[in-house]
Amino acid sequence: MNTYFKILGQTRVLVNGAFTDEWGTLKERGVFAVLLLHIGRAVPARILAEWVWPVDKSPQDIAATLSTYSTRIRNALKRLGLPGQLRTEDGGYRFVADPETVDYHAFQRAVRDARRHGKAGDHEHACEIMEAALGLWEDRPLADLDTDRADNWRRVAIRDEWLSATDGLLYGLYKRAEFEEMLRVAKSAQFEHDGDVLLAKRRLQALYSLGRGEEGVQYFFDFYRRAKDEDRPEQADELRRFHDRLVADDARPAAGSAAAAPDGVLSPRHLPYDVDGFAGRHDLLARMDDLVPAPPRPRLVALDGPPGVGKTALAVHWAHRVADRFPHGVWFVNLNGFGEGVPVADEEVVTRLLESLSVSADCLPTADARRRKLVDVLSTRRLLVILDNAVDGRHVGGLLPLLSGCVVVVTSRVRLSDLSLRHGARCFTVTPLEPELATGWLCDRLGARADVEPGAVDDLASLACGLPLALGIIGEYVAAQPGKSLGEFVTRLRERGAVLRLGSDSTHAIRSVRAAIDCSYLALRPGVRRLFRLLGSYPGLVIQHGVAASLAGLPESEVHDQLEALVWARLLEAREGDRYAFHDLLRNYAAERVEEDEEFEEREWAARRMIDWFLHSCNNADRLIFASKLSVPMFEPSAGVTPLTFPDAETAMDWYARERGELVALVDFAVENSFDEHLWRLINCIGEVMMRLGFKDEVLRSMGVAVRATRSVGDRFAEGGSLCNLGLAHSRFYDYDEAERCYRAAHGIFLEIDHRMGLATVLRNMGERRGAIGDTAGALEHLEQALALARREGDPHLEASVLQRIGEALRIGGRVDEAITQLRLGWMLWERLGDAGDIGVSLSSLAAAHYEQGDHFGALSFAHRAIVMLGQARDFALEGQTCTTLATVHRDLGDLEKAEFYAARAVLLTRQAQDPKRQAGAQDLLGQVRWRQGRHREARECWGLALGLYSGLGDSRADGIRAQLAEWAEPDVPRRRASGEGSSIWGVEKL
């Protein structure tokens, strides 16, 4: 396969038999380099931007810029006759071509081929292929990219791929006894990596193999002192241990054999096969190496982790690596702590070990005699003993005193902290594999099939969720059916529970992931087991302590102990604070268990308690943030539910922002399970906060759900309020026609049920809508009716909100002096009520009105106070609008530096609020400021973005900007396709 593209250096392409980088701009080459690196996989626009632009230098409109670059790249590929196709899909880009047309992927394939030859003993071919592969690294990879993401990738690639391949070449040269060439390659690699301990080891190995011991000693001391001086003690000590082994007597029996010691006792060599293609765990392996130097001292190491995570594989792999450090033997035993049958008892382990040491247990009639004999035999030996699959620390507690002179590795599914406290063990938790390692392992397993469908390999690897057991089962399942495409397996295994059941076979023990988890689940205490399966009904990803207690219907103190037991059993992960999470496959398993083991009625009650907890927690947050407003009517929570309370409004806002994903998942769950009475209340509690935080899509969708829920339960009052809030959501999206339809429907309902507060609220929102579109007379008609109702009902908050909207309608209609009078009346009422958000709204409007009146310094005063209040309330849209006012004032006063600062701030805030109209205004203003600064190209870019936003909204201001751009047109002006205020029945600004 020919190479057409190079990214191991600058991004070059093959043209007329030679590679060139003169085919596009630096950024275009950078974009293409990222797509070549991820060839065959879709790269989301956001991720692509992180690769190409530093955080503070990304373009204002990433989507438009990437669209321009992708068009240019396609044109270049076509013009130059290069293979492959650049596709746009799902908000990202994918370059489709044979991976081996890219030097980096050709390098990876060659390295895999070289390693296969090396494993087969063909070191000559292995060295030839590896040398050719390393020759592809001509320069600093991804040289056209200068970002944190690219730098991080380069560091990992050089460390894990280039240095690893170089070490593979050095190993092959060593096996071929080409020590001079080995020394030359090591020295060459050390020009840029002289601190790498792996290269240092190979250099020492070559020197000693050449009989140049004095030079080896001198090099060792130089490296050792340098590492110590540079605060790299671990590397210094690692090379010291390696050097000690080189100079020590190496007449040791090979691993895998059994050699007789002088006393006639055999040295056992009993280990399972090493894992084929063992991946990752470099940090853990290094830490275990450091704990067990050569010659080894007695040591106890404990490995824990969830079922299927690869604890045994890690222990066995490490044992094979260090077997030569244990001339007296290595020995492995499966204690069967989790599995079919009973756990292996101490006495059976003692008997087996004695027999492996050629000591007949039959001559030792009592258990005590066998123990004494084992202690006597091991008193002059240093064995490596692996006690695999222990129930807990007590399971091995009786054995450890007998093995006190050995290096012992214990594995278990539960944390073995008691071994640390009682015996000084070092405990390590084995975690799931990183996605890249899982994908790499599967690629090796599937061979050429993986090259054809790289995207499907990624999907299959992700289904294993980082568990080597699941990964191995999936790999075997796919490899056994070579006639099917990998995409078919992805579709099949995405079905719920498919990966859990894969490999099940009732005639064999633990052949499936489900069977492996079964063992851990059945070992739990009944109460803990019940909590585990009830957690499987939780629809979100991160489980709060209170949610778990509500699901179980138990006090939080009791559930805390059960949660900790699940964490101890490695069936649940502890997260920050009082939060917990499942591994994906464990979540699926728990979901199956709750349906199998819990009665339907109990599942229903658990779900109701869970939703009660969220509903009342959200209501508590809502009442704290909007203390002066009318609350959503509530019912009492179920027994056993203790909702969250919050110390202040800021903490409540933080909680809302953090729990956004959990709340969305909960709403979907409530819809699926027909919890309609909870739904409309929950959605109306969370709406305004979610809108302020910029989550408009969720608000618009969920408010539609709330309306349907109220109709389902037949609550006309709730339906009217939810319709009013849905109309407000549409209004915030500038869909005024749909907002009007919702308001009219709500108005009809409130007339029907004669609810005056509802009428006042919907009239206020209808007036605001009319004011926003410039119908001042219609707006005042509605708002004056609303004001009369509010005063008749004696609601000062509603009165203040109406006064503010009257002022806004007058301001938009050009009646600025009247507007200021009304806005001040509303502001004074809100000051008495003390709501920071509402005060900020009033101050923002007053700032705009004073600017329009020609009072620049009055505008500045009100705007600065407004920003403080709106920042506290996290009303990003109005804070952005206020920044626009500040920028406009500073522009008119000639302070372009401050004007640019506030205009750029307005762009960021309105973008965060997903408010396209305010964002367009901020972009337009930023363009004006930059034009005055002489930054004409940047100004045109801002106007191009504003044009796209206004056009998407159907706003007539697009015509003016379009004419302006045409007057100062340049061929590279980007065009953008853009995506797509108010109160509620529950209170001002409520959604």
List the helices and strands and how they pair.
Elements: E1 5-6, E2 12-15, E3 18-20, H1 26-37, E4 43-44, H2 45-52, H3 62-80, E5 85-89, E6 92-96, H4 103-119, H5 123-134, H6 148-175, H7 179-189, H8 197-209, H9 213-229, H10 233-247, E7 259-260, E8 266-267, E9 269-270, H11 282-291, E10 299-304, H12 311-322, E11 330-334, H13 346-356, H14 367-378, E12 384-390, H15 393-397, E13 407-412, H16 417-423, E14 426-429, H17 435-446, H18 448-452, H19 454-463, H20 468-479, H21 486-493, H22 498-501, H23 513-522, H24 526-535, E15 542-544, H25 545-552, H26 556-568, E16 573-574, E17 579-581, H27 584-597, H28 600-625, H29 649-658, H30 660-672, H31 676-692, H32 696-713, H33 716-732, H34 736-753, H35 756-772, H36 776-793, H37 796-812, H38 816-833, H39 836-852, H40 856-873, H41 876-893, H42 896-912, H43 916-932, H44 936-953, H45 957-967, E18 983-984, E19 987-988
Parallel strand pairs: 9-11, 10-13, 10-14, 11-12, 12-13
Antiparallel strand pairs: 1-2, 2-3, 4-6, 5-6, 7-8, 15-17, 16-17, 18-19
Helix pairs in contact: 1-2, 1-3, 4-5, 4-6, 5-6, 6-7, 6-8, 7-8, 8-9, 8-10, 9-10, 13-14, 17-19, 17-20, 19-21, 24-26, 24-27, 25-26, 25-28, 28-29, 28-31, 30-31, 31-32, 31-33, 32-33, 33-34, 33-35, 34-35, 35-36, 35-37, 36-37, 37-38, 37-39, 38-39, 39-40, 39-41, 40-41, 41-42, 41-43, 42-43, ...
